[in-house]
Amino acid sequence: MQKRSPSILAAFTPVVAMLLLLGIGYGYFQWRSEPLLIIATIIAGLMALRIGITWDEMHDGIIEKINQGMPSILILISVGILIGTWMFSGTIPMVIFYGMQYIDAQYILIVACLGSAVIATMTGTSWGAVGTVGVAFMGIATGLGVSLPATAGAIVAGAFFGDKLSPLSDTTNLAPIAAGSSLYEHIAHMFYTTFPALAVSLVVYWFAGSSVLIDSDIATPEKMAIMLTTLEAMFDWNLSLLLPVLLVLIGAIKKWPSLPVMIGASALAFAMGIIVQGFDPKDGFTAMVKGFNVGMVQRDGFDSAAVSWEVTRLINRGGMMSMMGTCLIAFCAFAFAGIMSKSGALEVILTTLIQKVKTTGGLITTTIASCITMAVVTGSSYLSILVPGEMYRDEYKRRGLAAKNLSRTLEDSGTVMVPLVPWSMAGVYMASTLGVPVIEFAPWAVFCYVGWIFAIICGYTGFGIAKVEEAESTTVNAKEASHV
Fold it and tell me: Considering the entire predicted model, what is its pTM?
């Protein structure tokens, strides 16, 4: 059969089908999302067959997407090991223990947002920040009785702020590559939208940090005292427990590869769990795979069976197995995205969106809509950056707009919207790691949807919009200054 480009109807049919399946099946009936994604993939496959795409070509498309996503899968599994070993060593429990005593409940949302932002900026990974300090902040919030959806939203917002601005982040490097700008001009140009979005988020968290967010059933002096006493009975505290954190931060400053650093920090935490806490090495290996469990604590006078639910909820987590659900979602999403990409349906959808766009504001808005569409359809931050970047790169150039406008917009909408998609890798990871469904923390992840609103404002007002002439002049001046 001769290949042909899909019609607008054919291109949009799998997308609409997927949205209906996930919106009704997953959102309303609470059915598992994996089979729903497979059904959507079958629909996409039938559309591809109809226009002449063979199974072998679809298979190649799926493999390509899996190959692109494997670095993220490996990071994901490593984060599971990291969480399990940092629980085993007592690193995360120690942060929870002291955080519950010294952080005021009124400011926990602000502290959680800024703390996650700092770690993500230094390490270049939002997932690592959420899996380490994010887990600790959730524990602190539990002890203080603060709303967990609000805390999770603040953590996600801060983590993606840091990820977005970090020169070590894969998406921060990917966006300028896709748009044709340079890394550091891209980062500098994001200040126009990123910092105002963070400021709005912090104002929201400031006003939200009131008694309205406090669960009086949990935040009682008696329950907090029991939690603190239990944690202190389970672990020995000393500053050496922060060595795994220090290793991660040094790796970020030295720009060492993320994966070896995370494995190294996990190995260090494993050793400290044995040396400092006196745990059995066998339990340490189990924590790497299945996560830490309070039953691993074998101390005189300590009864693991009597530990309260609040404490076990904090401590029983981590391990590679905890990430397998996210990996499964990813493979299902890769199958759908691979077929849609190979059939040319994504290009048809994005081309349709750009028609009749006349103004810069309209172009920015259309780019944002395209990135969000890609995020919803594929659940991939990489695809939500790469595909629109390739599609609109020449259009921005044709209109005399500097490439850094496009790279900034890709990050304002592509990178930060993916964690708000419940079936995306990032969304499933955030929900499973923090213990709060995406639909519950999404309203509180203010930064993730305010940034692209500022991008649209910039587009229509012209504020923070660089022309090609301005970009070239800046480059020339920088070159001249370098010779002085």
Answer: 0.77
